[in-house]
Amino acid sequence: MLLSLGWVTALVAGIFAIHIGQKLCFPYFWKDVFYLVRVIRYGLRMEMYKVTSNVCTVLDRFIQQAAQIPHKAFIIYEGISYTYRDIDDRSNKVAQVFEKLGTVKKGDTVALLMNNEPDFVCVWFGLNKLGCSVAFLNTNIKSRSLLHCFNCCGAKILVVGKDLLETLVDILPSLQEDNIQVWVMGKESLHPGVQTLLDKVEEAPGLPIPAERRAATSLKTHTLYIFTSGTTGLPKAAVITHLQSLKAAAGFWAYGGTCDDVVYIPLPLYHSAASLIGIGGTLHIGATCILKKKFSASQFWIDCKKYNVTIFQYIGELCRYLCNQPKAEGEKEHKVRMGVGNGLRQDVWREFHRRFGEIRMCELYGSTEGNLCFMNHIGKIGAVGRSNFFYRLIFKYDLVKYDMVKDEPVRNAQGFCERVQKGETGLLLSRVSSRTPFFGYAGSKHLTEKKLFRDVFVKGDMYVNTGDLMVEDHEDFICFRDRVGDTFRWKGENVATTEVTEILGLVDFIQEANVYGVQIPGNEGRAGMAAVIVRPGCMFDGKKLFEHALRDLPSYARPLFIRIQESMEMTGTFKQQKFQLVESGFNPSKISDPLYFLDNAEKCYVPLTSAIYDRILSGQQKL
């Protein structure tokens, strides 16, 4: 008896010691295990699709949910509830209109220019039911860029929201010359050649389209095009396949989302975050989403309480806006348990927790066109994701040394890149393989090729250049440091410096422009700044430049600062030198060149004085 008792005591002590050892040496072991089990389960499902050539797409999943939970609210918009069946029936009507008219066939691409509203989803799903790909157009892009988008994705039909039709007036002749049909989601149109869709949808039968029209036999089949700013200077059409859509739709589920959740979507649906992760993730778990036309910091918590929101989507700027709101009673009295998004700074993260409670902030990392995704399933403040031995077996990535001055990876004597050590900042590269393919951009192989690095570690290998500087710490957490190249983020949007440079170059007194981003304390991302050379015999005209930027650039892409220079510094390969300009910032007391600031109140670029500079740093100056 004593011997048995001794064995039991020893066993309990051993288990306790192992438990303590695991807590001390491997504190995230079980969280990693549970997360990886979910990832592997979902990955096996993808593999089965490859074997059987019978893909259950995001749209198929929606149709399943519409059959199983037809009366459950799918979208709540401006206080009106739309059930899964409502959206299914209305998307059928959209499909029936285009089917009856015979304007599209399976494999065609249709462009969609709409603000957030339920009909965005209905048109999207309706066209997908016909086997068409849909190109989501950014509602901020202007005429020249918008015309370029049609050339990229090959769309010959445009569906535009009623409230956005007037923004197309100047390019309608060009669209019609290119034989692009324009359909407005309204009952009447004052513009010749623009056809109305809403009246036809309301009269159409809600009969389903045969399943074979939408059937996909490969995960690599294109289903969407989402436009992203890049180094080419104009929007690029990122190819979205069923594989990418399915992966994104599993985001909420991977973080523990269930059918009982209510998801708040304040981000624009033309972004992959709101459409692929938000709408796709909501329908994947059979939840309900609150769709906002536009984010409102003052309305956010009112909505969360009114609709019992449990999950919300964010970008870093959104959370900062919420933290900057005046404090109010009962800020922690809500049911929000999780936020899913990216770009949340550590200081904002901590302040958000302090103000609004210990909401689980689930940071993730992954570009629209990329083949790699990180998820911070632990919730460590400041990390965009977490890696480990098993994750590296699935996703092959590396951080390599990067020369900021030359704006290129460091290559050794053999011509190969060099990996950084743990804790060192490096350029994130993601390997291209059959498991992690890279689909690139539509319209030009050259654009896709520019995103790739070859012969990185051995001859013949191929990696995607993410353009992001990252660091992996000694606990395997991945942290974002900065962007490199010709793109930076401001107000939650990617700004392509080449595009802005080209548009500034159209101003008659500007001879040359070099656009880059500078950090402003207390603000997410980088604000636009342009170093310009004024043409000989001309004078800088702040009012004319303001009017030009207002007319031809979206608000987030307009340079906040202008720096007048006598000459441009160039790299050894005749590229404009940005590194020193970025480092020097916009402090008028430290820069001898004339500086100007975009003053919306004055409707002019005005001289950047020390007083304005101080107001910017203190947050008193509206940006």
Automatic annotation (TrEMBL):
Residues 64-385 form the AMP-dependent synthetase/ligase domain. It is found in: Cell membrane. Its EC number is 6.2.1.3. It is a multi-pass membrane protein. PROSITE patterns: AMP_BINDING (PS00455). Gene3D superfamilies: 3.30.300.30, N-terminal domain of ligase-like (3.40.50.12780). InterPro entries: AMP-bd_C, AMP-bd_C_sf, AMP-binding_CS, AMP-dep_synth/lig_dom, ANL_N_sf. Residues 499-575 form the AMP-binding enzyme C-terminal domain. GO terms for molecular function: long-chain fatty acid transmembrane transporter activity; long-chain fatty acid-CoA ligase activity; nucleotide binding. It catalyses: a long-chain fatty acid + ATP + CoA = a long-chain fatty acyl-CoA + AMP + diphosphate; a very long-chain fatty acid + ATP + CoA = a very long-chain fatty acyl-CoA + AMP + diphosphate; tetracosanoate + ATP + CoA = tetracosanoyl-CoA + AMP + diphosphate. Keywords: Cell membrane, Fatty acid metabolism, Ligase, Lipid metabolism, Lipid transport, Membrane, Nucleotide-binding, Transmembrane, Transmembrane helix, Transport. The keyword Nucleotide-binding applies. It comes from the Eukaryota. One of its GO terms (biological process) is long-chain fatty acid import into cell. One of its GO terms (cellular component) is plasma membrane. It holds the Pfam family AMP-binding. Belongs to the ATP-dependent AMP-binding enzyme family. This is long-chain-fatty-acid--CoA ligase. It comes from Albula goreensis.
